[in-house]
Amino acid sequence: MSELSEEPADMRFVRIGACIIAVLAIAMGLLWLGQGTGVVLWPSDSFMLQDRTWARNGLLLAAAGAIVLWLALPRQR
Q: Which pLDDT tens digit goes with each residue over 29-54?
């Protein structure tokens, strides 16, 4: 049996929710990183464009999302 079928339904709900939030955090972090470094120039009038502060914030958010995703994924025993 898989590990997912052995865990309680409420814990599975929390795990799936954490994965969704983590993926969204990674996507938003990568967007901020791209805008802060000037790779993504969208929207063209954004205050975040080519601002190193937003590049740093994006990197931190993407890293935090990756950590949450890694912790939320089921492990093989």
A: 999 999 999 999 999 999 999 999 99
Decide if 19 is inside a domain.
no
Domain that holds residue 68: 25-72
DSSP secondary structure, 46-60, as one string? -TTTT-HHHHHHHHH
Tally of domains within the chain: 1
What number of other Cβ atoms are within 10 A of residue 54's Cβ?
20
- Write the CB contacts of 66 (distance below 8 Å, at least 6 apart in sequence): 22, 26
pTM: 0.85
Angle subtended at Cα 7 by Cα 64 and Cα 25, rounded to the nearest 5 degrees: 20
d(CA 64, CA 74): 18
